[in-house]
Amino acid sequence: MRHIASAFGAILAFSATAGGATFTRSMERISTMDPAQGRSIYDARAHRLVYKSVLEVDYSARPYKIAPCACDLPEVSEDGLLYRFRVIDDDLTAQDVVRSLERLRDPETVSPNGWMLKGVATIEALDEKTVEIRLERRCHYFPWLMTMPAAAVMKGDGSGTGAFELKHWRKNHEMVFRRREPKDGAFDEIRYLVVDDVSTQWLMFLKGEMDFLGEISRDNWDAVVGADGKLDPALEEKGVRLYSVPTLDTMYLGINMRDPVLGTNKKLRQALNAAFDYPAWERFYSGRIIEAGGPVPPGIDGYLDEPFEYSFDLEKARRLMAEAGYPGGIDPKTGRRLVLTLTIGRASQDSRESGELVAAFYERIGVKLELAFQTWDAFLKSVNEGRVQLYRMGWVGDYPDAQNFLQLFHSKNKSPGPNHSDYESEAFDREYDLALESATEKERNIHWRRCQEILREDCPWVFTHFNKSNMLVRPTVGNYVPSVFPYGAEEHFTVMERQ
Fold first, then answer.
1. 314 near 275, Cβ under 8 Å?
2. In the 3-class helix/strand/coil scheme, how is 49-74 assigned residue by residue?
């Protein structure tokens, strides 16, 4: 470690001489600059730089709260069905808002974000600066939908009024955004680089070629963070800052409820949860995760803060296997070990090693777990068509509300909707629907907790973990606040003097 620390010091001392008010970071491939067509969080990051959403998430407020953006906070009718927005951006009109939102649900646009307006009856411009949106039914989280980058407001010519404009785009390589109007102490340019190799990202950060590292790879973790969880002293001395925050990412092993082996055998699904060795899983991920006992992350209103009955307990798992009809993992139909298949949508080193670890967990209860790797597109097709037994997936929350996670289990959302397990429960649907109809947060949370109780018993997933986000920020970047809603955050960064 001393040798590595010395190298860090030399590299960082050299990188401090670099100049220019450009903020540079790595970014996954961005597929489109049309907010209506955005499909990933990476698309959303770029869109929010260029376009203002109807509303936005307050950059620094904790807990997170909604703030004005293109429009002021809405007036809401007593029955919760009518939202009236006042456009506060001088360069935008109510007609711009109506046209931009209507694109999301226009059949000719074929927008993957059309679901955001699924419960909207009408969108009307009452005058040049007033927009009225009428809902078909109460939707307590509707304002959060208006903060999403897909709720971007375009001018008539398709341009935006966000803090930046796209200056240069070399597909699959580089994007450069230029601030529309100079701002004292702020970055003039934002530069996104596509760098697939995490080791290359790390070296570029050390050399000062990147100001921000959005994720620390498992291979580099021990070189960055000590056993005490603190940043390596050599990095700290040079002003590099480490941030670690819980995310809204819920990760899981989905169970196909249409599968004849798993779908009808609740005891077997419970056994798979009880056999999942979270302490070993956490060690594998260097402590960068949080244990899950359901789909809703901690800190969300309505989160069920009670012990999960089927968390890791090897003896319970073996007992449940016997009750499921597979004592010792033996399939009574064949007299041989039960064989299950876990399908994974990426053949990376991490996915292979973690998949093998899961297989080792289930080996302890006599289950042979085979791994099947597919391309992402083929994987999604297999999941949606029910041609998998177990599949590995995650969900990134769009807004901090239990509904955003529990919608993944409503029968109306079965594949190709977000309910990829094709889970169906009348009791769950009833509680979910009652929550949506509730007029108060207190009443909603009662139903959200009941929803989670039902899921914890039925186990349509193996609940694995919630992610923590770990970021490194160089001392040249000021006013950085870690957030699970980082869209457009670069607008707030300040340029610090280089050492």
1. yes
2. HHCEECEEECCCCCCCCEEECCECCC
Q: How far is CA 295 from the centre of its chain?
A: 13
pLDDT given at position 4 = 31
Domain that holds residue 446: 247-468
Residue 419 or 286, more confident: 419
Domain membership flag for residue 212: yes
> How many residues does the structure list for the chain?
499
Structure tokens at 84: 């009236």
Whether 293 is covered by a domain: the verdict is: yes
SS3 163: coil
Are 344 and 388 spatial neighbours (Cβ–Cβ below 8 Å)? no
What is the tally of structural domains in the chain? 3
Count CB-CB contacts under 10 A for residue 377. 9
Q: Are the beta carbons of 83 and 133 closer than 8 angstroms?
A: yes
- pTM higher than 0.85: no
Averaged pLDDT of the chain: 92
Strands (E), 389-484: 390-396, 461-473, 477-478
Task: Write the CA distances from 303 to 246, 426, 448, integer angstroms.
Answer: 14, 21, 8
Report the alpha-carbon distance of residue 136 to residue 117 in Å, rounded.
Answer: 10
Q: Rounded CA gap, 268 and 473, in Å? A: 45
Which residues, including other chains, have CB under 8 Å from residue 442's CB and lie 6 or more apart? none
Quick check: is 42 in a domain?
Answer: no
C-alpha distances in Å from residue 169, one per residue of 136, 148, 190: 41, 23, 12
Reported as a single tens digit per residue, the pLDDT across 211-255 is: 999 888 777 888 888 877 789 999 999 999 999 889 999 999 999
Q: Which residue has the tokens 């509300």?
A: 401
What is the CB-side half-sphere exposure of residue 86 using CA atoms within 13 A?
Answer: 6
Residues 251 and 103 in one domain: no
Q: Above 90 in pLDDT, residue 3?
A: no
